[in-house]
Specification:
The protein is mostly helical. Helices cover 66% and strands 1% of the residues. α8 packs across α11.
């Protein structure tokens, strides 16, 4: 019998807590049992985001949910958990599921809360799903990748050197459960090589891998395949949330025939245009920063009733993601997000102390997370001059200027035109805030150009990369600026005019997909052929990594010398990335292999036997505990060129 003091409201809330806890526990144990992994886990996560009442509009739910994931989920890997193999993704899914149930059952009006889970749908809400299908098709060679050897061979073709570094960071996070800057000293006493590199995008990929495969760690080959699938899934997600950001703009929801071509333009920029460098040059972390800044512009451009903590949390997360993915793009994300302050009116700010407290907590969390990148980059790297790194990405003066003039210049012009045509002060201010994003990009480019010209006499790598970033970010800004020009739809026209309008929309959408070229499709075909064909060099790297994993830490160096192998230094990088021994102590062997590569006169080809034997001799003489690994095909020729005292420290693998 219930005590007399318990009211129906108290009983309902107790029941709500019990049911919510049960749902959360069920989701967590389904994760532990492996039921909510793979495709079921991915589908469950997507459905959960679609049900969260982040906004009444479906596309805005996707955009805000994506912003929260990109900005805040990776922070869970900043701290090492006391219990090994903590399923962070499973815990988040369980808490969200339980919290959603609690939110519904807590209210007296259950029907109202339940209906609020159902989003408002419009024609434009199909855009993120169509874009996701297109992105999944484009990324399918990676989403369906099966062999680590083939992935390695594709990534080591000369353009994708950075894949070995990014893949190594993801593998380390998967194995250690925390990012390298938080690990401390390595087993050999030196620092981990990437301890001074912000790893926000890498923990994003780790989250996606954990969503599909749980916390159980596979061997090096398995984990590298998961890395390839993870970056493919990340690119699909970036395109989906960006197109959702376009579809949530109120003026485009009223004018769907304009929305579809604009959404196609954004998808094309990231899949087929300059954004395709995310995979061809292994710049997917850079793509995260570009997408974060672009999504911030789209979300901030949407008129808001007030300074809601949820929207500020989403925008703050995007600034955090940009800062920890590619720091030079953080100012653009900040400028884009600042548009949420418009119009500046006291009645848009919290009216209660509790509201101010929530808003203050969000702002403080954002500032703290953004500023955390400073000790990682500046203190750990000792202020090295990376901004003066000399290598050309874009060749030719006019080639460099073309992308930023084509997108950034047009976005700036369209936004300024919207300012001229604006009918209210708030519309004018919002249009100016959009124009400020590419304008800030031009200012940054100018400052960086002056700095590089003063230091090295030319513009180089980081100028080119910033130029590409400004160009990519300007595409979502351009769509928001075009949307600012659109007024209410006109009255219905006749069937013939309606059919003509729909046909024009379809044609414009298809044309928009090809505006930025087809380099992404070219690379898709290249990847498809490479990942379905035979692999030899990649398989040799994996065998060498197996041997080094069974030996003392950092006491093994693989020397690639079979015709067709990539450069020896790159193959060694893959070895120490796969066996998770990439520390500052590996710089010595790396320098010897780089010198051998250069003396051999090669850029992307393997060493000859004589150069490999000379490098092996130098390596073995520097450390009496060191062993080198070579392929069985070149074992005898290399051993034959070495002094007898060194020959027993040359290893190979069993060919049977």
């Amino acid at each position: 019998m219930l005590a007399k003091g318990i009211s129906k409201d108290h009983l309902r809330r107790i029941l709500a807590v019990v049911v919510a806890a049960g749902v959360a526990a069920a989701v967590f144990f389904l994760r532990r049992a492996g039921v909510l992994e793979g495709i079921p886990g991915l589908v469950f996560a997507v459905l959960l985001v679609l049900l969260l009442p982040l906004s009444p509009v479906l596309s805005k739910r996707i955009a805000v949910g994506g912003a929260l994931f990109l900005g805040w989920m990776p922070l869970l890997w900043w701290v090492r958990m006391p219990v090994p193999e903590v399923d962070r993704t499973g815990i988040v899914l369980a808490l969200l599921s339980g919290g959603l149930v609690l939110w519904v059952l807590w209210s007296k009006d259950l029907r109202d809360r339940a209906w609020r889970l159902v989003p408002q749908l419009g024609v434009v809400d199909a855009m993120p799903f169509v874009a996701g299908g297109l992105a999944a098709w484009t990324m399918w060679p990676f989403l369906g990748a099966r062999g680590a050897d083939r992935l390695i061979e594709l990534f080591a073709d000369g353009r994708g050197w950075d894949h070995v570094a990014h893949g190594g960071m993801v593998l380390m996070t998967r194995a250690e459960g925390v990012i390298e800057p938080m690990l401390g000293a390595s087993p050999d006493g030196s620092s981990w090589i990437w301890a001074g590199y912000p790893q926000h995008p890498h923990t994003t990929v780790t989250s996606l891998i954990e969503l599909q495969h749980g916390t159980a760690l596979g061997d090096a080959a398995t984990e590298f395949v998961r890395y390839g699938r993870g970056i493919g899934l990340l690119m699909v997600g970036l395109v989906v949330v960006l197109v959702a950001g376009v579809a949530q703009l109120p003026s485009l929801r009223r004018r769907p025939l304009f929305a579809w071509p604009l959404g196609a333009l954004v998808a094309a920029a990231f899949l087929f245009g300059l954004g395709s460098m995310a995979l061809t040059r292994s710049w997917w972390n850079f793509a995260v920063a570009c997408a974060a800044a672009g999504l911030a512009a789209l979300l901030a451009a949407s008129p808001s009733e007030g300074m809601k903590p949820l929207k500020i949390l989403a925008l703050g997360g995007l600034v955090v993601a940009a800062a920890h993915s590619w720091l030079l793009l953080a100012p653009l994300a900040l400028v884009a997000a600042a548009a949420v302050l418009i119009p500046w009116s006291r009645d848009r700010w919290p009216s209660t102390r509790r509201g101010w407290l929530k808003l203050g907590m969000v702002v403080v969390a954002t500032l703290a997370a953004v500023l955390a990148v400073i000790p990682i980059i500046v203190l750990t790297q000792g202020g090295r001059g990376y901004l003066t790194y000399v290598i050309d990405i874009l060749s030719g003066r006019f080639t460099r200027l073309a992308p930023v003039l084509a997108t950034g210049g047009i976005a700036l012009a369209v936004a300024l035109a919207a300012y001229v045509r604006s009918k209210s002060r708030s519309e004018a201010a919002r249009s100016l805030s959009l124009a400020a994003v590419p304008a800030a990009g031009f200012v940054l480019l100018g400052l960086l150009a002056v700095y590089q010209l003063a230091k090295i006499g030319t513009v180089s790598y980081y100028f080119d990369k910033l130029l590409i970033g400004v160009s990519l970010i300007s595409v979502p800004v351009l769509t928001a600026a075009v949307a600012a020009h659109l007024g209410p739809p006109k009255s219905r026209q006749g069937k013939l005019r309606g059919l003509a309008a729909v046909s024009a929309c379809v044609l414009a959408s298809l044309a928009a997909l090809f505006v930025f070229g087809l380099s992404g499709l070219d690379y898709r075909q290249e990847a498809k052929e490479a990942l379905s064909g035979p692999s030899h060099a990649g398989a040799r790297i994996l065998r060498a990594a197996e041997i080094s994993s069974s030996r003392p830490f950092n006491k093994t160096v693989y020397i690639a010398a079979v015709p067709g192998d990539p450069r020896a230094a790159l193959c060694y990088y893959y070895q120490i990335a796969l066996d998770r021994s990439w520390t500052e102590a590996t710089k010595g062997p790396t320098e010897i292999l780089i010198e051998a590569d250069e003396s051999d006169g090669t850029r992307h080809n393997s060493l000859d036997v004589e150069s490999a034997a000379q490098a092996a001799s130098e390596l073995l003489l520097t450390d009496v505990e060191l062993a080198v690994v070579v392929a069985p095909e070149v074992l005898d020729p290399i051993v034959g060129l070495l002094p007898a005292s060194l020959r027993d420290r040359v290893l190979t693998w069993d060919t049977h």
